[in-house]
Amino acid sequence: MNSPLSGQPLDRVDGPAKVTGRARYAGEYPEPGLLYGSVVSGNVARGRIRRIDCDAALAVPGVVEVLHHLNRPKMAGDDESYEDADAAEGKPFRPLFNDRVLYSGQPLALVVAESLEVARYAGSLVRIEIDAEAHRTDLFAELDNAHDAPAELPGPRGDFAGAFEAAPFKVDATYSTPVEHHNPMEPHASTVIYNADGSLQVHDKTQGTQNSQDYLVKVFDLPKERVRVCAAYVGGAFGSGLRPQYQLTLAAMAALRLQRSVRVTLTRQQMFTFGYRPRTVQRLRLGADAQGRLLAISHEATGQTSRFEDFTEHLVEWSGMLYRCDNVALGYRLVPLDVYTPLDMRAPGAASGVIALECAMDELAQALSLDPLELRRVNFADSNGNEGKPYSSKALLDCYARGALRFGWHSRDPRPRSMQDQGELVGWGMAGGVWEAMQMKASARARLDADGHLWVSSATTDIGTGTYTVMTQIAADAFGMALADVTFQLGDSSLPTAPLQGGSFTVSSVGPAVRQACQALRGKLVAWAKGRYPELAGIDAGAFVVRDGQLQVAGKAYALEAMDVRVDAEPSARRQGFASATHSAVFVEVRIDEALGTLRVSRVVSAVAAGRVINPKTARSQILGGVVWGLGMALQEETQIDHGLGRYMNHNLAEYHIPVNADIGEIEVIFVDEPDDIVNELGSKGVGEIGVVGVAAAVANAVCHATGRRVRDFPLTVEKLLG
Amino acid sequence: MSDVPSAPNTHAIGLYINGEQHHLQVPPWLTLLDLLRDELDLVGTKKGCDHGQCGACTVLRNGRRVNACLTLAIMCDGDELTTIEGLAHGDRLHPLQQAFIAHDAFQCGYCTPGQICSAVGMAREGRARSRAQIQEAMSGNLCRCGAYSNIVAAVEEALPQMGGPRP
Questions:
Q1: pLDDT 10s digit of each residue in chain B, 167 long?
Q2: What is the domain range of residue B129?
Q3: Does ipTM come in above 0.90?
Q4: Is residue A654 less than 8 Å (CB to CB) from chain B?
Q5: Fewest Cβ atoms nearer than 10 Å: which of A135, A304, A440, A686?
Q6: Domains of chain A: residue spans and CATH
Q7: pTM beyond 0.95
Q8: Residue A689 catalytic?
């Protein structure tokens, strides 16, 4: 057999489709007679709809219907029907359900018309009168109304209060992070094709086709076999597709009512009218001895949520597991506001929570006059203190060493403002990153055609992560076949069950299912061939090769027969005794013109320990993207709300700033070797989240090194650097 | 309401799109972007914001890169347009398309057609010589996946093959 494809930096198999424009996304499927839905959004944060006047809209030629809470088709009346695989605790939002206005931007009506232009124009003619009620949208003003988050936090260990009190070196600092929106480049869209038999074929922007399917089945009480949801290509999601979004509900509602095919695509402005990364305020207390050993850690966070659901994320757990410490107390509270429910967003919880931990560690290093990297080495933990379990692998020390070497960290002058170059202040900062390495149950099917092509499938998605490519590599290796003879199919609810694509667990969940299915199919092929061709009976299975459309054994070719295998994979029992996580060390150089307050991140080195990397090319891209996200978090991203109106004000891509090409300096990605035969059979831990974690803290730490100024309120915008 | 609004009248225009002539009746409010996507099924040109803020809809109009979302279809009467679908010759990819694959200059792929068309237009402008100039000239095209480093690498590699200056 040839050398394995896994581990090779192969080009994406979906590359040609994406660079030629052939890849179709959810809102791009044509259908004769397709109707276009345009969402009418509210602009009041809390209240009741008193009156809705659609006469003018309905009078526009080409308008077919205006749907709203008074004339919508029947929908489920219980909360359970609206709960999806990523639902938060509470009562899920129900689009167009009743007269209640729960947040500004809420969809209040859907205009359906023969063309997009007509629908959009007619939408501007819908008059909606709302009896507004007093609203609250400011987390900081409502901290007194917080309640404990319904999260399963690790209980306190040791005696934080006593140890912190007695610690000779301390940090007690409060950090805040803003609301951020996912803003994938593709706005959310659903094309619902109404088949002649009344069944629905849906192209949805989602990270889980079966999640969307289940939702439609429950909400509209449809037979499951009459709803099929596809997502062949997803134009970015970052968590925004983990829950069925309201464009899906509205498009399906209209299709069912009108018995016609309908597409609903959100505008960029409407991309700010559902889930987001919640604003947080986080107090970090660290106590250490003179050598820097952590004696006490407390991480208390408060995040915002909606009034209808309690959204929780893993915000503070990282502080109990990244470093060794015997006295730890974690706290997490929520403040309900008149806003939509937050939603998992790339490295949910970790991206914001590790900011506080890793900035506080930098502050502690300053208090100790200790190198920040050395402080982290001193506190290295080989077990997860929250769970009391050893890590299945943790090559974080290698990340520190290789990242530092590559960055040139040893030549850092620790004194703030000590490094200058061409009139600019230069700052070097670093931080660690951590994310859980999870595995979910997943299924896959492998089918060999009589012409020798291997088709492998699972209902996962590829949101740009490289799933098509990586699964093809895994399948080709497991079956022992050339890459070109293998096709991996995904993004279809009718395929074998797969978990949501999120949390960096696609490769570690779907990958084993694909591998096992292909191995089982190979076994089946060999057994069949030995029965069908008696002269093969005594030949070793390793000699069986499928190539050029035939079975080839010992220089002779045999005709094939179609066959298939379906496999359900789940985490091994062996995992249970261990904790598994990805780790990183991020090194950042900033350059600051103090007179102008301008800041550039000129260099980033991200050293990552993520187990075995199946495709270094696509994995590197994931880390590069994560770093760019981290830079956005550090310096730019913030959805700003006018609390008087209870409404986002910068809900577009000109005012919600994300990094552009010219913002990005050199980024170097290092994958350290991290063998792990416990985490799963592939030894892979996933790379979608880890790239972003720690980056914003490293930037803030670099800014402090450059300027002597510690900014704890993110993002670090120009006025905070000048002020 | 006394004056019920009505959809506007249509106008005849002629376009050359990817070398093919089209005679079309378009309402004046139809953007080039919606014409391409909804009327002609050329969905390779993407709609990311519809406000000229993201660059996903970048196409070449008479060789110059423009945001199709800010261009009304009736403004283009007689124009030559090239979209992402018109760059390859059959199965033979444009050098930039090939370079985007080789450098993994995309992840989700949604901004990619705009990035590629923008870079083709930029090459023709002849002002991007250094890496920093490429980055500046490509900053009208957002990529939320954060593939910028790879985009620059792909553009740098392909520029000499596009008749542009060697960076």
A1: 445 556 678 999 999 999 999 999 999 999 999 999 999 999 999 999 999 999 999 999 999 999 999 999 999 999 999 999 999 998 899 999 999 999 999 999 999 999 999 999 999 999 898 999 999 999 999 999 999 999 999 999 999 998 754 44
A2: 95-162
A3: yes
A4: yes
A5: A440
A6: 26-134+184-267 (3.90.1170.50), 346-438+577-722 (3.30.365.10), 440-570 (3.30.365.10)
A7: yes
A8: yes
